[in-house]
Design brief:
The protein is 42% helix and 26% strand. It has nine helices and 13 strands. The two termini are 58 Å apart.
């Protein structure tokens, strides 16, 4: 005997019509009738007399009605209580927006370890562009943000340092002699700088890389890393892709590309990666989680 069949029986009694009861239960009238017949077969008694327009309950159905009503009501109350319990005791999830290309292997290890060991929260990762994720953080669509430390973003953010990484340049494998072990931005002045950005934030990303690299040439905007690296490999236009030393994406294209450190005044250009959260966020747990992630990333 199924709970669904018991509900159909109660609906039939209430509506005094199989057709109306079937509509109330959102199934076809033949399917409704079949379920009632199966219930009667399992109980071994006839519950409803139905002949053309006549509808009447049998003595068996009158004996069955009250216990059936009580059982269905108890089950519905139990389900509501359990749903309420699940809602009030649900482990909160926090979304971390992460700039595409950041130290994926290390970050995933840390996030997976925290999720396995924590019973009080669950962390999710969402990858995207700097400006896109920054807007999402401002709109409370994500809880934390992992990206470069850009001075213009400091007005509403608090951050913890994750790591300092060298800025490198990904170029076609044979574009520079093998003895060249590092590049200056002047070596790239005649080339196109390939950047990865959402089309809504292209200007902001171009301005950032122009300032960061000291580059004043042409830009090409790609939507993702494979597209960007394909552009770099293409011999029609000499191009380069700025990447950080902890970005493992160029490894998968190592048969076609080289990744060389970028120097400024003969010193490596450094990028500071932070984990940020809103300065005025009333949820103190977010700050604690972000600081814990920063500590674990630094240990790696």
């Amino acid at each position: 005997m199924l709970l669904r069949q018991m509900k159909y029986f109660l609906a039939a009694v209430y509506c005094k019509s199989f057709n109306e009861a079937a509509k109330q239960c959102f199934i076809s009238q033949p399917s409704f009738s079949l379920q009632i017949k199966q219930l009667e077969k399992e109980l071994g008694v006839k519950l409803i007399n139905r002949n053309n327009c006549n509808f009447s309950l049998t003595p068996a159905s009158e004996k069955f009605y009250e216990p059936c009503k009580r059982i269905v009501g108890d089950v519905q109350n139990l389900m509501q209580n359990m749903q309420h319990f699940a809602e009030t005791n649900q482990v909160p999830s926090y979304i971390i927006g992460c700039k595409t290309g950041y130290n994926i292997c290390c970050l995933l290890n840390v996030i997976n370890m925290l999720n396995k060991n924590s019973e009080t929260y669950h962390l999710e990762l969402l990858y995207g562009d700097h400006e896109q994720l920054l807007t999402m953080l401002a709109n409370n669509e994500i809880d934390m943000l992992i990206t470069e430390n850009r001075e213009a973003d400091d007005n509403f953010l608090v951050g913890e340092l994750l790591e300092i990484t060298d800025l490198c340049i990904c170029v076609p494998k044979h574009s520079f002699p093998p003895e060249i072990k590092a590049l200056h931005i002047s070596d790239l002045s005649e080339q196109t700088c390939v950047i990865i950005a959402n089309r809504d934030y292209v200007m902001q990303e171009q301005e950032y890389y122009a300032k960061c690299l000291g580059f004043h040439g042409n830009f090409f905007t790609a939507r993702d890393i494979p597209t960007a690296l394909t552009k770099v490999i293409d011999d029609k236009v000499k191009s380069f892709l700025p990447v950080t030393s902890n970005n493992d994406a160029p490894f998968y294209f190592s048969n076609f590309t080289r990744t060389l450190p970028l120097l400024a005044d003969n010193e490596p250009v450094e990028i500071y990666y932070n984990i940020f959260w809103q300065k005025n966020n009333p949820n103190r747990k977010i700050a604690a989680i972000a600081q814990h992630i920063a500590s674990l990333m630094q240990d790696h």
